[in-house]
Amino acid sequence: MTDHVAGAESDPVGSRLPAQEPSAAALESAPDLGPATDAGSDPPGARSPILDALPVAPAEPADGRGPAPGPAVGQAPDGSALPEFEPGEATAVRPSATAAPPTTAAAWLARALRAAGLRYAFTVPGESFLPLLDALDEVGIAVVATRHEAGAGFMAEAYGQLTGRPAAVIVTRAVGAANLGIALHTALADSTPLLAIAGQVERRFLGREAFQEADLVGSVGALAKWAAEPATAAELPALVDEGLRRATAGRPGPVLLSIPEDVFTEPLDAPLPERSPTPAPSARPDPVLVRSILQLLACAERPVILAGGGVLRARCSTDLVRLAELLRVPIVAAWRRGDVVPNDHPLYLGMAGHGAPPTVLERLRSADALLVLGCRLNEVTTYGYEIPAPGTRWAHVDVEPRGGRVGLRPPDLALAADARAFLRAALTRLANGVLDAAVADARAARNAADRAAFEAASVVEAGDWAGPGVHPGRVVATLRRLLPEAAILTTDAGNFAGWAARGFRFRRPGTFLGPTSGAMGYAVPAAVAAALIHRDRPVVALVGDGGMAMTMAELETAVRERVRPIVVVFDNERYGMIRMHQDAGRSRGIATDLGPVDFAAVGRALGGRGVRIETDDAVGPALRDALAADRPTVLHLVVDRRWVSVNDHPFATR
Ligand SMILES: Cc1ncc(C[n+]2csc(CCOP(=O)(O)OP(=O)(O)O)c2C)c(N)n1
Ligand SMILES: [Mg+2]
User: Fold this and answer.
1) What value does the mean pLDDT of the chain take?
2) Which of 457, 480, 501 is the last residue of a domain?
3) Is residue 135 situated within a structural domain?
4) pLDDT, tens digit, for every residue of 89-101?
5) What is the SS3 string spanning 528-583?
6) How far apart are CA 285 and CA 305, in angstroms?
7) Contacts with 129 (C-beta within 8 Å, 6 or more apart), sequence order
8) Which of 578, 594, 597, 637 to mutate to test the pocket of ligand 1 (most atoms within 8 A of CB)?
9) Looking at 27-31, 194-198, 245-249, which range is the least confident one?
10) How many domains, the chain?
């Protein structure tokens, strides 16, 4: 057996501590909020603005109109129920015990995956794993043929992001595994559970530079969280168990099993793994740390919560909103995690990173206290590791808080916990106290001003553009107006994405798929997977002409699978983002101009619909038709090259 582990992996929280939620009574009996003596203690001389042991006061509306019944836990500001992240049909599947004992490793593997709750396998087939395809079909795992392994991998990645459970992607030898690499890297960046299986050359050919042979564990496997290759069928059960555990435990991620072709046909009669790949419930977070973190937020002048994918994965957006409301602390979303809370909430101040209005960085910089929740603080979210700013005291609550490992100043408080466990403990503790009225009023006023500044700075449809081509900001405004709140958006990499990042408003958690790897080619396959999982919801892929051409063949996969994503192509006939960097002086305009492609015709050629759009007025009607259509639709938007980025409007420079 060979294996590889990417980075140091800490133990999953749930494996070290009792796997149960804390009882309310246990938390109530924990020490009350009060002056703390540890790293999270009040600044010298500060009085805690949380008044202990008072009855719970109803939250006041953020507009300061005086006492009024505030939204209850789980309610939106208007009192309606906040929609929680819908996990999709796949999470409802229970492991199915199998009756007849399997006879080969392939049959055993298929049964094991089915028993572990896997529902989908995305693949480009290869001769190295044919028995597995039959076996998967026999146990009822849907095998979806795709047009490229990157497409297959992105579909599995999107599945994992939306459901929190791994899908399988199956590829052949070096050629398929190499094509898959980008999706493994994306799943690692996105902390997405994913099981990749590569058919390897037969064992007797290993190490002989055989046809399509490569060291898959040592090469592509290095892009995964963990990779291994069984030497015999007998080694397979332990590796499958280990792989599924690592895919979902701690910080989730992709794992790769490289399986020699002849292992699949070896006899194997072993018990199926008992564990379903559902993360174990989180343990109770340290109550002293929870108290200290609440004190940090309560005592600050300009606190902010920076929330990431861990909140989505733990499905606790409602609890996050409630905590923010109780403490009157605004929320900034991590880059490409803009759906972490409903964006129309008055405490939402935008998504950090590329495309963000300047108010987001300003607000993060001016924070004297920052709670980073379920977020790994990547380079883009932190604006090149500038956030947390030097003057900000910060707490990191994450399944794997990173300390100073990535060039960031170590947090003042670090709590290894999943977001839900932290929020539940924090909300329970806050039931014993309310925010001092003067502090609450001051925060309400400042929060309202911050929200107004964010709204003003995130208008993207302004300006008197009359063509040629569409106004990208107005396209986003039209999407915002016409899409129902359950619609799922996927995005690719490129400058076109800036208008949506700034101007779109997600109204429900779990409605956005964007790769924090910045991988081009993601949006279309991710949209196909989202449409497979949520057949009843509109799915819209946003993509540039460059990214579209990388994976547009997956539209045929959508047609074959009878799903109908809408693909909005922003076509400026260039690799616009890279050209922007060139024009900024770093180099000449080499290799960034592209020729015309009739993307609408491509949509039709692949079995879907296609519409070429050259004016703003045509966007709405075409989108309405696409929403009602029975097939995928490509909306091919002509975009003038003067639209360089969301920061750089052509009408402003003329
Ligand atoms: C797979 C991959 N290759 C290269 C890049 C570098 N890259 C980032 S944006 C970009 C251009 C994207 O062009 P397009 O999709 O047309 O969008 P635009 O910027 O023109 O709006 C490139 C090449 C990348 N992010 N991913
Ligand atoms: Mg382009």
Assistant:
1) 86
2) 457
3) yes
4) 333 333 444 445 6
5) HHHHHHCCCCCEEEEEEHHHHHHHCCHHHHHHHCCCCCEEEEEECCECHHHHHHHH
6) 18
7) 106, 170, 172, 197, 199, 259, 261, 264
8) 578
9) 27-31
10) 3
Residues 6+ apart with CB under 8 A from 207: none
Count of H-run helices and E-run strands, the chain: 22, 21
Q: What pLDDT shows up at residue 57?
A: 29
Q: Determine, yes or no, domain membership for 490.
A: yes
Examine the domain organization and report whether 568 and 626 are in the same domain: yes
CB of 546 closer than 6 A to ligand 1? yes
Ligand 1 mean position to 519 CA, how many Å?
8
pTM, rounded to two decimals: 0.87
User: Which ligand has its closest atom nearest to the C-alpha of 495?
Assistant: 1
What percent of the chain is modeled with pLDDT above 90?
Answer: 77
SS (H, E, C) 403-427: CCCCCCCCCCEEEECCHHHHHHHHH
> Which ligand has the minimum distance to the alpha carbon of residue 493?
1
| Secondary structure (3-state) at 257 | strand
Tens-digit pLDDT profile for residues 189-214: 999 999 999 999 999 999 999 999 99
Phi, psi of 300 (to 5 degrees): -80, 160
| Three-state DSSP state, 469 | strand
**229 plus 110 within the same structural domain:** yes
Residue type present at position 136: L
The answer to whether residues 451 and 496 belong to one domain is no
Task: Tell me which residue of 518, 475, 520, 510 sits closest to 489, measured CA to CA.
Answer: 510
For residue 438, give the CATH number of its domain. Answer: 3.40.50.1220
Q: Minimum-distance ligand to the CA of 544?
A: 1
Q: Which atom of ligand 1 is nearest to the CA of 543?
A: 15
Using alpha carbons, select from 516, 513, 515, 517 the residue that is nearest to residue 527: 513
Host domain of residue 55: 24-61+281-457
Q: Which of 247, 242, 212, 246 is nearest to 229 (CA)?
A: 242
What are the pLDDT digits (tens) for 554-567?
Answer: 999 999 999 999 99
From 428, 457, 486, the end of a domain falls on 457
Please identify which residue in the block is written with the tokens 């960085």.
Answer: 361
The residue whose C-alpha atom lies closest to atom 11 belonging to ligand 1 is 575
Q: Is the CB of 520 under 6 A from ligand 1?
A: yes
Residue 223: name the closest of 184, 190, 250 by CA.
Answer: 184
Task: Give CA–CA dist 303/337, Å, rounded.
Answer: 20
Going by C-alpha positions, the residue among 169, 200, 203, 197 that lies closest to residue 183 is: 169
- Could you report the per-residue pLDDT of 40-88, keeping only the tens digit for each? 333 333 445 554 322 222 333 333 333 333 333 333 333 344 444 444 4
413-416 and 393-398 as β-strands: parallel, antiparallel, unpaired?
parallel
Distance CA 146, CA 144 (A): 6
For residues 452 and 476, membership in a common domain is answered with no
What is the number of other CB atoms lying within 10 angstroms of the CB of residue 400? 21
Task: Mark out the alpha helices in 431-496 (DSSP H runs).
Answer: 437-457, 472-482
